[in-house]
Design goal:
CATH superfamily of the largest domain: Bordetella uptake gene, domain 1
Distance between the termini: 81 Å
Oligomer: single chain
CATH topology of the largest domain: D-Maltodextrin-Binding Protein, domain 2
CATH class of the largest domain: Alpha Beta
Radius of gyration: 23 Å
Number of domains: 2
Length: 325
């Protein structure tokens, strides 16, 4: 009888020891309890939208709940970012771009959210090196930069708007190449930038490879080089370093964030599933065909990227005195 009592006590102790892990597992698996929304601050078919939809379908499968993408375009993605920051339903996430996390606070004094305090950083999803493109008639390599230096501010460059990565990136490039001094012409979007290049309104632009390479491969534009090393998204394009531009590495990227109040259960589940999805062969191939390199980091990988790039962009914003309303 005594032996049986001891065995029962041991069994009870073992069961009690299992309660916290089981409870934690149940709490984790309990999220999500309804449809998950991913807000994208850009129109359907845009680069952030492509990444969001590449994530949403497989994420829905593993979560066992619908995951829908909602486009809330406007203000360079800041309208959607603000809605994510203020979400309270524990089921709203957001796809953001570089500027929303690295430069928006410096550019917009009245920005309604704080990128450093109002988000749960979840994952750096995908990256793409910017491609410097020019009209097809222009020379390539070092000869292009020599021509640009001769023309000074008589040449123009385009971007998708003041404060965009194409705008700030070109201002950084101007500090890396002696004599480079083109004037900025802002456009509504990358399609208009391409039109400006084809029509001769502008002579250069830094654009994502998914936008640039179809025109380059068709012989309508010339790819001068990638802002960084060679890349699988455009293997035929040399690095700008080959043209004499040193220390210039700049990518466009997309990240997954949630509001700072996002529950631990949600964060834990997403931190497990999202990197696994982004690193899968299926997702990597799908995004590569669209001009993106799938990444899928843990939260600290995103934090590190934001810190490094904010220092670069902050320097050029201060040096050029760039401010937006």
């Amino acid at each position: 009888m005594k032996r049986r009592s001891l065995n029962m006590a041991a069994l009870a102790a073992a069961c009690n020891a299992l309660v916290p892990p089981l409870a934690q597992a149940q709490a984790t698996s309990a999220w999500p309890t309804k449809t998950v929304r991913i807000l994208v601050g850009f129109p359907g078919g845009s680069s952030p939208d492509i990444v969001a939809r590449s994530l949403a379908e497989p994420l829905s499968r593993v979560l066992g709940q619908a995951v829908i993408v909602e486009n809330k375009a406007g203000a360079s993605g800041n309208i959607a970012a603000d809605q994510v920051a203020k979400a309270t339903d524990d089921h709203t996430l957001g796809i953001v771009i570089n500027g929303n996390l690295t430069s928006a606070r410096m550019l917009y004094p009245k920005l309604p959210y704080d990128p450093a305090k109002d988000f749960s950083y979840l994952s750096l999803l995908a990256t793409a090196p910017l491609v410097l493109v020019a009209p097809a008639k222009e020379p390539d390599g070092a000869a292009f930069f020599a021509a640009a230096a001769r023309n000074g501010d008589r040449w123009n460059y385009g971007s998708v708007g003041n404060g965009s990565v194409g705008h700030l990136g070109m201002e950084v490039l101007k500090t890396r190449s002696k004599g480079l001094a083109p004037m900025h012409v802002p456009f509504k979007g990358n399609p208009e930038v391409i039109t400006g290049l084809l029509g001769g309104e502008i002579q250069m632009a830094l654009v994502p490879p998914g936008i640039a390479m179809p025109q380059v491969r068709a012989g309508k534009l010339r790819a001068i080089g990638l802002a960084g090393g060679r890349s699988t998204v455009a293997p035929e394009v040399p690095s700008l370093a080959d043209a004499g531009v040193r220390d210039f590495h700049l990518e466009v990227w997309t990240a997954l964030v949630g509001p700072s109040r996002l529950s631990k259960a949600a964060q834990d589940r997403l931190n497990t599933e999202v990197p696994r999805i982004m690193r899968s062969a299926e997702t990597r191939e799908k995004l590569l065909n669209q001009g993106w390199q799938a990444v899928g980091t843990a939260p600290d990988g995103l934090v590190s990227r934001v810190k490094d790039e904010a220092a670069i962009m902050g320097g050029i914003i201060t040096a050029r005195g760039i401010r937006l309303e």
